[in-house]
Amino acid sequence: MGPLDRDGKWAFGIMLPPGVRAMEDDEIIRRVHAAMRRPLDVEILTREAWAAHRLIADRYRNGRILLAGDACHLHPPFGGYGMNLGIADGVDLGWKLAAILEGWGGEGLLDSYEEERRPVHLRTIAEAVQNFRVLSDHLKDNLDADTPEGERARAAVVAEIIATKTREFSTLGVVLGSCYAGSPVMVDDGSAPPAEHYSECEPSAHPGCLAPHAWLDDGTSLYDHFGLGYTLLLLDDAASALAGRIRDAGGSAGVPLTVLDLREAGLAGLYQAPLALIRPDQFVSWRGSDADPAELMGILRGAPAAAKPKRARAPRSKKSAKGQSSKGAAAASVLLT
Ligand SMILES: Cc1cc2nc3c(=O)[nH]c(=O)nc-3n(C[C@H](O)[C@H](O)[C@H](O)COP(=O)(O)OP(=O)(O)OC[C@H]3O[C@@H](n4cnc5c(N)ncnc54)[C@H](O)[C@@H]3O)c2cc1C
Description:
Layout (H helix, E strand, L loop, with lengths): L1 E2 L6 E2 L13 H12 L18 E2 L4 E2 L2 E2 L6 E2 L7 H21 L4 H26 L15 H22 L2 H5 L53 E5 L5 H14 L3 E5 L6 H4 L3 E4 L5 E5 L4 H8 L32 E4 L1
Parallel strand pairs: 7-8
Antiparallel strand pairs: 1-2, 3-6, 4-5, 7-9, 8-11, 9-10
Helix pairs in contact: 2-3, 6-8
């Protein structure tokens, strides 16, 4: 039960017992009274049947038609993931559509939308379905009884809630921790992506992960310095020449690219590389010290002829960004755009 406004309109949800398709007004009002433990003057303004789903589209794109949000995937609302997923679909798709309209994006960019988002959808749907397995009406009766049985029932319910519901409400790893590793418009660096966990979210600049955040010395957020297009983070002196060549290749390909000079910021450890390329949606698409700039641009913009270089996957490094300071030593300055 929850308020819909401040003037006395409330929403009241009832799980229909198996086989029951509808409920009389009298029975609904009786249940409201039972839930509130007092008689209330109740008027039913409207009612709506709703069913939990576990559904995902077979394909997300047909030419100029792309599916996003609930039109593409449906799951039980437990975990509060639906709107999050829909917005993140829009974030993934929005800049790709802009790239097509601006003329620098290739067809591969639009196809990558499904390849990047579908694994995230499947993971999130599985979480939501798991959360749906235990709901409040599955919990025991007799919780209010001032008796030893009531005491035992309350203790059992506390244990059950902690065991089954923590995963529903402690979800940073699901909301922020998904990685687009394997995307055709990113370049794998051979390292292993961070392990997935429902509540833990380890900052990682592995290509496909959300760019690790850092506060800079002037108190600004690293994210506030990212450009609207791609942003190349220059994190080490040794990579200056390559940064210039990548900037030039971006210019030739029409890819909007900002170079951020962060050589004094001490972030090379956090990013585990002297250079890192951040996409318009703030995901890392490449990091390293060596690249063919023209080939790199071809892959990033989903150009038809671009073939991804294949690299052997190295065992996961024990060295992680954990424990590294997220505060850079110097403010960012935009070197070149
Ligand atoms: C009980 C419940 C609780 C939820 N709690 C949460 C939560 O805590 N956190 C969370 O993130 N998500 C939650 N969700 C999920 C969230 O509400 C949805 O995932 C989200 O609204 C989906 O957004 P959407 O834009 O994809 O679709 P919708 O919100 O369904 O928007 C689609 C719009 O398209 C319109 N439309 C349909 N057909 C046409 C047409 N032919 N022409 C023009 N317009 C059309 C519809 O009227 C609608 O306005 C919950 C959902 C439910 C049911």
